[in-house]
Specification:
By secondary structure, the protein is mostly beta strands. It has two domains: 254 residues, Oxidoreductase, molybdopterin-binding domain (Sulfite Oxidase, Chain A, domain 2, Alpha-Beta Complex); 129 residues, Sandwich (Immunoglobulin-like). 9% of the residues lie in helices and 31% in strands. It has seven helices and 22 strands. It has a five-stranded mixed sheet. Strands 6, 7, 10, 11 and 12 form a five-stranded antiparallel sheet that branches. It has a five-stranded mixed sheet with strand order 15-22-21-17-18, with no helix packed on it. The longest helix is centred in the first third of the chain and has 7 residues. It is globular and about 70 Å long. Bound molecules: ligand MTE. Ligand MTE binds next to strand 3.
């Protein structure tokens, strides 16, 4: 497929400023996540604290007068759209959580070494994305709603960026989604130009990015250059040689990448964020807060907390907006967004607190990391455990 003419920088000399409290997991390319407590301090994640996941230098597309997204491939009438053209389409605000498939990779690597940038539990964020629906954008080139295959055989939509990624030998980041999802207005796939009511920041894809709700973050391509209708899934590195879930028996000596499909929806996930792994606190009551989410628009049916390693459980309070009761699947809930949870527990001595979530299809997080271990360390969704030492006379202990 033809690639566009725009190119991002090839070095890191022009990176944007970033919030000082982000935890930097890799400097070049820049990969960072917020501290745990900051992540769950609000339902909508502030842009500055939103995790940043990059595979190359951040593009600069300031000359907006010469910026176009080319739409082509297997369509009747290819075209190109300026930012203004996209802004003229009906605008939608979709609150959706973007989660990197590598979220919680460090914990998986601690069990058995994996390759990839280490992430704690905060490689995700919840934002209100503003933009045009991809289904409306595709109508402009003659592809109707609910099309699964175009007359010329197109079955996927490929997003092509302008950044230069070493994994693509200096070429752009690419990913694809099925045409049926792209042309379904209810799937809420956006060509977004706003994040939390502000113009997208460079770090998050200015001027235009794809937002694919309910799907691993890797498919929400930033800094769009082209949108192509293609016959097969994108052959890009990040679709074919990465972001695939292999069984624990596969290692770097026997891996055959073509045996697995690219990962799309993310599975049921939750994590406790109100404390680090090794907090020291006064004995007594402690408030446990965290997030739970599931892919494909599935809601969160329960978040269970255990204080005895999983022998007994009780339900945590779940919420999106503090004053509106959360009910999975209810029209008042944000279908594509995380659910925060809260529980008050008593702690004394060495205490382990465990969280696991259940989604509206009754999918449950697996107990152990070993059963889902995979060589790239993606989709670590095992029960989340934090350990505390609750000791009196904290001041003298410290
Ligand atoms: N798009 C481009 N062009 N380049 C990238 O490196 N990273 C992807 C996705 N889109 C990436 C990209 C990955 S792996 C994730 S998890 C999300 O962007 C992260 O989006 P964010 O940095 O806005 O949080």
């Amino acid at each position: 497929m033809a690639e566009g003419a725009l190119r991002g920088p090839s070095d890191y000399s022009q990176e944007p400023p970033r919030h000082p409290s982000l935890r930097i997991n890799a400097k070049e390319p820049f990969n960072a996540e917020p501290p745990r407590q900051d992540l769950v301090a609000s339902y909508i994640t502030p842009v500055d604290l939103f995790f940043k996941r990059n595979h190359g230098p951040i593009p600069i597309l300031d000359d907006i007068g010469s910026y176009y997204v080319t739409i082509g491939g297997l369509v009747g009438r290819p075209g190109r759209l300026s930012l203004d053209d996209v802004r003229k389409l009906p605008k939608y605000n979709v609150t959706a959580t973007l989660q990197c498939a590598g979220n919680r990779r460090t914990e998986m690597s601690n069990s058995r070494k994996v390759r990839g940038v280490g992430w704690d539990v905060c490689a995700l964020g919840n934002a209100t994305w503003g933009g045009a629906k991809l289904s409306d954008v595709l109508q402009l080139v003659g592809v109707q709603y609910h099309t699964e295959i175009t007359p010329s055989g197109g079955k996927y939509v490929e997003f092509i960026s302008v950044d230069q990624c070493p994994e693509e030998k200096g070429g752009p980041y690419k990913a694809s989604i099925p045409l049926a999802q792209a042309t379904n207005p209810a799937a809420d796939v956006l060509v977004a130009y706003e994040m939390n009511g502000e113009v997208l920041k460079r770090d998050h894809g200015y001027p235009l990015r794809a937002v694919v709700p309910g799907v691993i973050g890797a498919r929400s391509v930033k800094w769009l250059d082209r949108i192509d209708i293609i016959e097969e899934e994108s052959q890009g590195f990040f679709m074919q040689k990465d972001y695939k879930m292999f069984p624990p028996s596969v290692d770097w000596d026997n891996i055959v990448w073509s045996t697995r499909k690219p990962q799309m929806d993310y599975p049921i996930q939750s994590a406790i964020c109100s404390m680090e792994d090794t907090n020291v606190v006064e004995p007594g009551q402690v408030t446990v807060t965290g997030y739970a989410l599931s892919g494909g628009g599935r809601g969160i049916e329960r978040v269970d907390i255990s204080m005895d390693g999983g022998k007994s459980w009780f339900g945590a309070h779940r919420y999106q907006k503090e004053d509106v009761p959360y009910v999975a699947g209810d029209i008042t809930s944000d279908k594509w967004a995380w659910v925060l949870f809260k529980a008050v527990v008593d702690v004394k001595g060495y205490t382990e607190i465990v969280a696991k979530a259940v989604d509206s299809s009754a999918n449950v997080q697996p107990e152990s990391v070993d059963s889902i271990w995979n060589l790239r360390g993606i989709l670590n969704t095992c029960w989340h455990r934090v350990r505390l030492l609750a000791t009196p006379n904290l001041r003298s202990f410290i």
